[in-house]
Write a structure and sequence with these properties.
The complex is a heterodimer. By secondary structure, chain A is an all-alpha fold. Chain A has 13 helices and no strands. In chain A, about 80% of the residues lie in helices and about 0% in strands. The two termini of chain A are about 40 Å apart. Classes of the chains: A mainly alpha, B mainly alpha. Chains A and B meet through helix 1, helix 4, helix 5, helix 6 and helix 7 of A and helix 1, helix 3, helix 4, helix 5 and helix 6 of B. Chain A: It is found in: Cell membrane. Chain A: InterPro entries: BP-dep_ABC_trans_perm (IPR050901), MetI-like (IPR000515), MetI-like_sf (IPR035906).
């Protein structure tokens, strides 16, 4: 009986690790190829590199203007996320605390727009934004605020609902106005959910392609996904540089994942079990 | 708390302004533009009534093909993503060593953006599959992404690879929500193995299936980045999905009005499918 259970457990483990191997193999092959010369890739794509050379990386790094693209991505992602968190926590707080018909309708509206595909708004949006002279990086940040706030408001809303109102009432009695109450009492209580909302927004904004390609597709302004796309257009058959550039773009996201794993899992499962 | 209207709107204002300018007004304008012959460049937009919709429904073959492709793709992707996601979730909730490591590995592809994913797999399909097929003389591994069938399968593999880890996370959360005593009671009633899965676990998993199906349907239907970077819609538009079709109609052919009409149809279809799915699966949710 016991040995049967051990065998069962071992076989489950084997299946798990075989599947894991299958899952990482594309990335594995990519890493392997990124250290090889183009000729070696064509001769035998699966063979190990002859020597450990970072030549592809230094070349790709320079040719895709990596530092600039990284800084653009980094600044746009951080600023947008910070602003989304600020405006959606403010909005969610009053939506919870004011139980009026207006707040109910607004909340339903934020939930409903989740279903509208981006393709449906993209042409008029670009039209409006170019009239407002917002076809630049600050304009892109503003658009991310518009697209990101609905989901974030819903997440904050669910969290604030469970915070007792007494603390806030006490603060008001002590003479705090709304702004002071929000900053001193409410925001500190939101710490846990802020991390989750931040991670969710960082993930989609960092990887977003279509919106920046419509808004800031000019030299010097591009984000990493845009540079990768351009780079591939220019070097479609240069797989040595291409694989290295793909690796360069994946590394920041993997590092981010390893450092925020806990919050990522929380963010995904926020809606489950409710 | 003193409830002043001013305070409410003061706190709502930033989110509401951004949201209105970026999503609400463009949506309404977009519906309006779909009745015009706007070409995206000239200022002139002439009202043409439902002409764009008639064109799409009667003579636009590219849209019809993209629609069929997207529909078939979504059906297959939703099944494979959720099935594999569920299998992975049951696997990593067993009492075995290394489950956290396995979870991390299965989830990882999800973090990589669609453009990078498409290019990565393009390399795998075009270079690696080809090389292996050539060496071992396996015919079906060769010539990937050069016809509709392998383009379809390629996209399916990419999306399954990307999304099943995400679904796994959702299903893990729900599996861990199932109370221990329910499972013990089931065991006493001799519900084990398949019976336990069919009559105890699956019904209790319904809330997670509601979310999993909703997310995978909308992800599959709206797929754009992976489509653009993996096949670019080719060869000869045979793997073009709806989002990419709308994009090409607008920026490739400069027919913004027509593209906008397609986008409105797209929106209606996405909403209808999501609402039907939510109402069906919601009804099947049970309490433990």
């Amino acid at each position: 009986m016991k040995s049967k259970r051990v065998i069962k457990r071992l076989s489950i483990m084997t299946v798990g690790f075989v599947l894991a191997l299958l899952f990482v193999s594309p990335v594995f092959i990519l890493v392997n190829s990124s250290f090889k010369s183009l000729q070696d890739i064509y001769i035998n794509v699966l063979a190990l590199p002859k020597q450990l050379s970072f030549q592809n990386y230094t070349k790709a790094f320079k040719e895709m203007d990596y530092v600039k693209a990284f800084m653009n991505s980094f600044a746009i992602t951080c600023i947008s996320t910070a602003l989304i968190i600020l405006i959606s926590s403010m909005a969610a707080w009053v939506l919870v605390r004011y139980k009026t018909r207006t707040s109910k309708i607004l909340f339903l509206m934020f939930a409903a727009v989740q279903l509208i595909p981006f393709q449906c708004v993209m042409l008029p949006l670009v039209d409006i934004m170019s009239k407002l002279h917002l076809m630049n990086r600050p304009g892109l940040v503003f658009m991310y605020m518009g697209f990101g706030c609905a989901m974030s408001i819903i997440l904050f809303h669910g969290f604030i609902k469970n915070i007792p109102i007494e603390l806030e009432e006490a603060a008001i009695i002590d003479g705090c106005n709304m702004v002071q109450t929000f900053i001193n009492i409410v925001l500190p209580l939101l710490k846990g959910i802020i991390a989750t909302v931040a991670v969710i927004n960082v993930m989609w904004i960092w990887n977003d392609f279509l919106l920046p390609s419509l808004v800031i597709n000019k030299n010097g302004m591009q984000t990493l996904p845009l540079r990768t796309y351009l780079f591939f257009g220019q070097f479609t058959k240069k797989w040595d540089l291409a694989t290295a550039s793909l690796m360069l773009c994946m590394i920041p996201i993997v590092l981010f994942y390893l450092s925020c794993q806990k919050y990522i899992v929380k963010g995904i499962t926020a809606g489950v079990g409710k | 708390m003193k409830k002043s209207k001013k305070g409410f709107f003061l706190f709502m204002a930033p989110a509401l302004v951004a949201f209105t300018l970026v999503q609400l007004i463009p949506t309404v304008m977009g519906i309006g533009y779909s009745f015009t012959d706007w070409n995206g460049i000239s200022k002139a937009k002439h009202f043409v009534g439902v002409q764009n919709y008639i064109t799409i429904l009667t003579s636009d073959l590219s849209f019809r093909n993209a629609f069929i492709f997207t529909f078939l793709f979504s059906v297959c992707a939703v099944i494979s993503v959720n099935l594999i996601g569920f299998v992975l979730a049951t696997l990593v909730t067993q009492r075995i060593k290394g489950v956290n490591f396995l979870r991390g590995i299965f989830f990882m592809p999800n973090l990589i953006g669609g453009i990078l994913l498409g290019f990565t797999w393009q390399f795998i399909f075009v270079q690696v599959f080809e090389a292996i097929g050539k060496k071992l003389d396996i015919l079906w591994l060769r010539g990937w992404l050069t016809d509709q069938r392998t383009g379809f399968l390629g996209l399916l593999i990419v999306v399954t690879w990307q999304l099943s880890g995400y679904m796994m996370m959702i299903y893990i959360a729900q599996l861990q929500n199932i109370p221990e005593d329910v499972l013990e009671a089931a065991e006493l009633d001799n519900a084990v193995g398949w019976n336990r899965m069919r009559y105890i676990i699956l019904p209790l998993m319904m809330p997670a299936f509601t979310i999993g199906l909703f997310l995978s349907i909308s992800n599959a239907f709206k797929l754009f980045d992976q489509n653009l970077s993996l096949t670019g819609g080719g060869p000869v538009n045979s793997t073009q999905m709806l989002a990419l079709n709308i994009y090409t109609t607008a920026f490739g052919e400069n027919r913004f009005g027509l593209a906008q009409a397609k986008a409105v149809i797209f929106m209606i279809v996405v909403m209808a499918i999501s609402i039907i799915q939510l109402s069906i699966t919601k009804r099947r949710e049970v309490e433990a």
